[in-house]
Amino acid sequence: MPSEQQGNVSSMPTREFLTFVLGDETYALDIMTVKEIRGYETTTKIANAPSFIKGVINLRGDIVPIIDLRIKFGIGEATYNEWTIVIMLNIHERIVGIVVDGVSDVMNLEEDDIRPAPEFGVAFDSQYLHGLAALEDHMVIIVDIEALISSDELGIFETA
Amino acid sequence: MDNLSQFNDAFFEEAQEHLETMETLLLDYDVVAPDIEELNSVFRAAHSIKGGSAIFGFTAMTGLTHVMENMLDLARNEELELTNELITVLLETVDVLKDILNNYRNDEEIDWDTVEVSKQRLENELANVANDLPVGNATEAPSNDGSNSETEAEEGFGFFEDTVTEPDEDQGFGFFDDEPLTQLSSTEGEEDGFGFFDENISSESEDDQGFSFFDEDTESEVSQSDEEIEGFGFFEQDDDALNVDMTTDEADQPLRNDSAESKNTQSSDEGYGFFDEKMKARQAQDKVDDANGYGIYSNGDGNAQAANSVQKPSKFATKSKTPTKNAPEAKSTEATSIRVETVKIDKLVNLVGELVITQSMLNLIGQDVHEAMAEKMMTALAELERNTREIQEAVMSVRMLPISFVFNRFPRLVRDLSVKMEKQIELVIEGASTEIDKNLVEKISDPLTHLIRNSVDHGIESPEIRAASGKSEKGTVRLSAVQKGGEIVISILDDGAGLNRERIVAKAEEKGIDLPDPLTDEAVWQLIFAPGFSTAAEVTDISGRGVGMDVVRRNIESLGGRVEITSSQGIGTEFVISLPLTLAILDGMCVQAEEQIFVVPLVNIVESIQPMNDQIRVIKGSKILWAREEYWPLVDIGKRLGGRAESINSLDLTQSIVVLVETAKSRFGLVVDTLVGQQQVVIKSLERHYRRVEGVAGATIMGDGGVALILDVDSLTQFISSDSGGASYAVRAAG
């Protein structure tokens, strides 16, 4: 299957997605939103913030919030060890880090490869999903990360 | 001249400044005893705008300033008396010009009707007062100044002229005319001075005339004759050129459009060249590099004298000029200042912030250094700390501006308002040179405007009422700024009616605003900051809608400042705004609670104590502290911000540290685990990537690279009543 996808010569524009792991599931997000990937480090806790907001860290002089989607969506177990990864995202000119269990690959997808997301069966609300794609023998859930991060549900950004 | 557009911003800024100068001077203008020098300054400002706007094709401004200039010129020559009415007309013209400037700046449509109306108005005034004076646009005013008598005529007003009809002379109309270029280059090649700062221009060339602006190259051809070279620098601040040449030059003003047709080609050339990038590029490419950056703001001395015809190549034109008069003050300030984009300064400030962090990082490491080296290390670190602090102060001072930048707009505001409201009001400004962070300058302006409007509208009574209550008919609004420690204190004091306690309370009840208890005067005055509050009997277009005051307070608090009011019925009201000097760096005490470091701003701290058992009292099941002869309610940082579950009521307070703090509103104690130490911290925004957090003013980066939160003591007061039983202690006036 991947050979099919990547080997195709097509006129369709392809987009690159970064795949990452939360619990047992593989997700993907638009790589253009990724600023960098780094290991998890201790955060400074923010008072009265919801539990999925781990706190803030110093990213070269910027104070950046770190959120744990595993806690927010109840996927897998929120453990923090030397393999825990934080993906730094650049969304609407703000930087946000998301904690994931691992980062696996970069995949090229055409719009045709992306199938509509199911209404249920995924931890994320479908409004934050872009669709599903097949990778080798399993499904990749493509997250509309911009919509998710800037959503009122997460409440990371103050609604102006 | 597409490449002129890159100078548009410079023009906008300069024009803005000129307009502000005009406004200030016009406001200060004493109708009874006019100061001609001031008028000259106004005139020069108008003139510079006119010249500049013409070059850049901002014709709406050109036309209007032109008429304005005519009027000012007459006034300056004492042929016209400026009355208060005329001043008002001129001020209004300045307003129109400001609008036009903004329109151009924002690429908006010009409101030509307004421009025409305004122009017409000026012309009417002119016609009224000066029927017999030659103001017309086409009359050539004869020069009656001996020194200028033969100079006349050949004025290259490059920018007004599309075609220059003087092929016989090598007239370089620096701007829009390419023809002379060709000529020049054929004769003199690279050396011909159309450039701006062309150093060595055409001294050797007999015919080529440099029309450059600020340079002396014009002198080269002066050698042929005795004429004046007049430089009409665009940004020119040069009084020489204007004063000396005034007579001819100003007389010629109306003639600009025709000037190129005038005869006498031999004579004086007035260089109206501006930034001729193009020329530079073509002709003096090798020299422009160094000169480039200075040109725009340098002083042109158009008055280069005929005598020194041969110029040595000098880097900057101004250096070799030989002014005939003492240089005006403007010159010296200009030579010693440069314009820098604020972005660059902000970057510098950020870098210094990083430096402060690195320095505290080193301090941390220094403590672990082996003994043999420790002493040396400590000395070096102390040195570094001092240097860092000095650099930081120096960099901060770059960003400091005198508060007059804000204050200067208020005389006009008060003048307009008092005319409109038929009140007599004098605005007294004190401490206008007090310096304040540039970012604050921009943000404090709106709140101040509101407060001054308020004082004028609600505070000062009408002359009749004032007279009836035995006050002088003229009310006074006193605006002052002073630096006190790390704060700027701005006061707006009026000698008006004072706040009306009963009316405020009644109004608050009517609006359903919760009344504080006890209802002290201070508490009552604070009510006027409630949203939607206004006691003005009728809503005027000046104020009274009640949208202002809550915005005022919110704006000021968002800057880390506070507003206090004192008022006495019949005597007056004073608003006192306290603001931090800068928004970037803060002296703080680092404290630890629940394994996390928090920074308490030093300005808020009264004292830190480890409470003894007998100091702890329990009221309604909550602990409060007896210290300094009063009871202090407590806020538990560990619980509030550190995430500890149990409250202080179940903890042994004698094992904790209580930091006594005070704000404008209240005094209370912060319960923390330990004190870590005093340190300068760089304030970083939490909101930049996250959001505002209650009780937290921002974050900072500590020496170890970790993040610490900076406490917002003011907003911590909200936790008082729940942490500490004594609700009645919650709002306790400081002192």
UniProtKB/TrEMBL annotation, chain A:
InterPro entries: CheW, CheW-like_dom_sf, CheW-lke_dom. Residues 14-154 form the CheW-like domain. The keyword Chaperone does not apply. CDD domains: CheW. GO terms for biological process: chemotaxis; signal transduction. SUPFAM superfamilies: CheW-like. The keyword Magnesium does not apply. This is Chemotaxis protein CheW. It comes from Marinomonas gallaica. The lineage of its organism: Bacteria, Pseudomonadati, Pseudomonadota, Gammaproteobacteria, Oceanospirillales. The gene is cheW_3.
